[in-house]
């Protein structure tokens, strides 16, 4: 168990060192806040889809197809449970702040931080479950998440389907299901671009954190409560709900770890788009990301112990 804790802590520490590089570059003005949207677009529209496609360039087997379907059902069921349990949260806050906090508690940084974490801790073989999780995450994020932040009239099927995460997932799954292996030249290019996902995502997150008001981020009890719910309560709930179902260890560990990733950066983007509390959203993203260096190793050890992987 100690060895596994050290291994997970080492991988999480590696990710935070890359964030620190982004933080330092932004503080020195070598990465400007104006450049971050362009870097984010590069990550979303090219690097992340390539990483998803490369991760699914594996042999299709009946056992793997069954495991993927089972994993998708589990993830969808978990998000339904999360959404139901979040309904009474933060009702005493003003509506704009309460909606931002509920959204930030529900939706974690699955694409930018979760998938790199799974890749580093569990290896390439677990990435298929990460891809399935991202697909379900996007479906809920662009439906229930939009309803939460903007109301039912803001839901757009076009936005829910035609976003880079979903498009990349569809292409990756289509190639996998059809048994198509990319030609060597194309496959290598996709692999090289996809390998940028972890360092680029961490540098962007670190640069975003450089703009935070650190005197304000720890002063809000509501933000700290949301962090406890996101980083501790949600992975613990996930671990306990899945335990009686006995999914295979890789799937179990993947879902518990992804449940414990910090608040998604899209929280602040949605708050801006739909007129909710942008400042609180940004502070929640920053604080939860910082605190996750302490909680993610604990999530990994909990998942490994309960799944029998440790």
From TrEMBL:
Annotated localization: Cell membrane
Membrane topology per record: Multi-pass membrane protein
Any GO BP: transmembrane transport
Gene3D superfamilies xref list: 1.20.1530.20
InterPro entries, alphabetized: Mem_transp_PIN-like, Na+/solute_symporter_sf
UniProt keyword annotation of tRNA processing present: no
Alphabetized UniProt keyword annotations: Cell membrane, Membrane, Transmembrane, Transmembrane helix, Transport
Gene Ontology cellular-component terms listed: plasma membrane
Predominant location category: membrane
UniProt keyword Transport present: yes
Superkingdom assignment: Bacteria
Transmembrane segments: 6-26, 38-58, 64-85, 106-122, 128-149, 161-183, 189-211, 223-245, 251-272, 284-306
Family per similarity comment: Belongs to the auxin efflux carrier (TC 2.A.69) family.
Name of this chain's protein: AEC family transporter
Organism name: Candidatus Flavonifractor intestinigallinarum
Lineage of the organism: Bacteria, Bacillati, Bacillota, Clostridia, Eubacteriales
